[in-house]
Amino acid sequence: MVDVTKKPVATLQGSRGPALPAAARLSKREIETVAGVLTEMIELGLSLPEHLRYSILNIEKLGTLQDKYNAIQEISRVVAQISFEITERQIEKHLRTTLDDPPDFDDDEALREAARLIADVLPR
């Protein structure tokens, strides 16, 4: 079990926690405005099904720090898995269209070409 007492857990409600500083950190990393990040957060929150929004707020209001940490870790795992599957499909599609008639490569050239193609479809 991870000790979350030493780590701040970002909350979903700006008045109750560090949502604004988290948005500022994200905006610096993604080179977007804080307002743009907050707009995306709000749009994401509003796009969630009502029962999910209720469950998140319930964890936020009634859960312990460990409950919040566990929820965030589980959500992160699921979202990362879906993102990986999307990237995998993009790579497969790109390889299929790019290598319909693959040239003759030796193994080293094939590996370099595969790495280049994969790098082309991964987010930067």
How many structural domains can be distinguished in the coordinates?
2
- The total of helices stands at 5
In round numbers, the mean pLDDT is 77
Q: What is the count of β-strands?
A: 0
Write up what this structure looks like.
The structure is a single chain. The chain is an all-alpha fold and 124 residues long. It folds into two domains: 1-63, no CATH class; 77-124, no CATH class. The protein has five helices and no strands. α4 crosses α5. The longest helix is centred in the middle third of the chain and has 34 residues, at 65-98. The chain is elongated.
Secondary-structure blueprint of this entry?
Elements: H1 19-30, H2 34-47, H3 50-62, H4 65-98, H5 107-121
Note the main attributes of this structure.
124 residues; mainly alpha; 71% helix
Please provide a brief summary of the model.
Helices cover 71% and strands 0% of the residues.
